Amino acid sequence: MEAVLLIPNLVKLLMRLMRDPRVPIRRKVLVGAVIVYVVSPIDLIPDFIVGFGKLDDIVVLSVAINHLMAGAEATIVEEHWDGSVDSLDLVLSVFRWGAEIVPGLDKVLPE
Q1: C-alpha span between 102 and 99 (Å, rounded)
Q2: How far is 54 from 77, CA to CA, in rounded Å?
C-alpha cells in the first residue's frame, strides 16, 4: 500500500527529469521509446496471457526509468523528489531490482 502512495511523487519526478536540461537527452529518448512500446498493442509477451502479459512492460519500463535516474546526478534526482529520502531510496531500489532482472543490459544501453 505504501508503494501505491508513492506513484504521484514518482510521476512528478519522471516528468521533471524529462524536462531537466541536466539529464542526458539519450536517456530521455529511451524512456520515450519505452512509453511508446508500453502503450503499443505489439508486445513480446501478449497482454492477454494471465500473470505474464504485463511482465515485459513492467521490466522494460523499470529498466528505462532506472537508466534515466542513473543518468542524472543524485542531487538532481533528490531535487525533483517531493517525498522523503527513505521513500526515494525505496523507489530507486525497486527500479534497480527491476533492471537487474535482465542481466548484461547495462552493457547494451547507451551512456
Answers
A1: 6
A2: 27
